[in-house]
Amino acid sequence: MKKVLVAYFSAAGTTRQMAEFIAEGARFSGQQVSTRNIEDIRDASELAGYDGYIFGSPTYSLDLPGPMKTFLLLAEKARLGGKLGGAFGSYTHDVGYQHDAHAPAIIMETLQSSAKMIPFELGALTLNEELLKTKEGLKACQDYGRVFGETLGE
Ligand SMILES: Cc1cc2nc3c(=O)[nH]c(=O)nc-3n(C[C@H](O)[C@H](O)[C@H](O)COP(=O)(O)O)c2cc1C
User: Fold this and answer.
1) Residues 118-124: what's their mean pLDDT?
2) What's the CATH code, domain 3-152?
3) Of all atoms in ligand 1, which is nearest to the CA of residue 94?
4) For the chain, what is the mean pLDDT?
5) Which of 37, 61, 69 has the most ligand 1 atoms within 8 A of CB, as the residue to mutate?
6) Cα separation of 22 and 41, whole Å?
7) Of 12, 36, 41, which Cα lies nearest the Cα of 22?
8) CB of residue 11 inside a 6 A radius of ligand 1
9) Within its chain, how far is the Cα of 76 from the centroid?
């Protein structure tokens, strides 16, 4: 059994809900999953000991919220190179936006280029808040977690 950490920032609760569904999916795959709010993580040592990491954040002004930027700097200190990394988050505005400008894509890029983690093959999961209220949204999150867990293997 592998250990997975799902760590998220969420001001209004939508990204937290995604975190819970993703964690559920990863548990379906048989892995041991911890879910934590990044605001409760104070030290890089708290990130040690997992086989895979999935970080979540909403998009703020086509960027990461401040607390997520600070958390990613902490994660770099945790030396997660070679570990599997995924990312997710919710957003609201679709008009004219590309998913590669949203927070989850920025997190994936950071995990890969700065932390030298192995990017999860499904890339970042970026969902419109409205979709999350549907079964389709729930399933997208669970599938993401399940495939992440399956990718880690036994
Ligand atoms: C300060 C601020 C800036 C935001 N900027 C964007 C944005 O650039 N694009 C977007 O699609 N949504 C934007 N949003 C909406 C949030 O990304 C969206 O409501 C998200 O689902 C909130 O996640 P949470 O419930 O986990 O806090 C912004 C929200 C806030 C509060």
Assistant:
1) 97
2) 3.40.50.360
3) 11
4) 95
5) 61
6) 19
7) 36
8) yes
9) 15
